[in-house]
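== Folding the chain ==

***
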Amino acid sequence: MCHDLIVKTAVLGGKGLFGHRLCESLVAAGHEVVSVRPRRQGSVASPYRGVTYSAVDVTDDEAVITQVLHGVDALVYGVGVSDVGPVEGGDAVEWVRDVVGRTFRAAAAAGVEQVVVIGSYLAAWERANPGLGIADRHPYVRARIAEADFAIEVGTELGMRVCVLEIPYVFGAGSGERHHWREILLDRLRGPVVLFPTGGTSVITTQQLVDAVMSALQRGEHAARYPLTDMDLTWREMISVVMDALGQRSPIMGVPRWVAQPICVRVIRRLQRHGQLRGLSAEHVLDDFLCSHIYVDATWSRELLRYRPGGVPQAIRDESLDAYGLPIESPRPVPQFAGRRR
């Protein structure tokens, strides 16, 4: 199939603002779009015109999934591994292989010829730094690596073109869905003093992710893994934008490891009991992620996929405001920082 002849695309698992904007962009580009959501998510709050909505679970029989994907040319596979299925112990990799195998076989039977997998930049980080042993300590990272490896393997066997986008932290506003960042980050920045470790991470915007997916559907190569980033920010730089958006004036202070470690373990375990950050070893999150600068070089990916740089600070600001139901102002100056563009 010529890349330019894709006419019907299914989005499996894409939720929140990303899923909405991706469907919107696909429709605008002339695609017939099927948005496939897990049954547990219920009905769509704000259906988008031109999108057909279907409910199916990745644990359903292949025949059920095939029926939903009938006539689809390309599939955006955004199921992930942390909010469905087991991600603790040795079950995570086997669960991922089962789900990927079932879904991809069903997709091939339905006529799908191309799959874009929404993966994690932690797989790229592990690939670039195997000596750190991140995958050994965190089932989530192992599962993400297995997801990409097996997706490419099965795609090769079934004659489908499969590429993987390895995404970092994503910010954007207007999703109308539960705000992931409010629970994990924003609520923890509202005290009289903000204590946070000294690491950092790569970041992109929701729109950049959408643009990268759209481009991958057109020019993604089989078995390619594309790390996506726009800016590398320290936690202090990211937090300064959030606090400015929320009108917070609390000082931001680094915290010694011996103070941070027990607090971090306690917070991570509490979040995991509520379904967040599953598959990460609470005892190693501080050293492996929060005190590390996880910056992945994606210069070549951006040049190939042609998503535009810029907009990260404004996206962080907008999501911070939207998370608390505050009006999103027109673009305005944000705190200056030395974030590095990738």
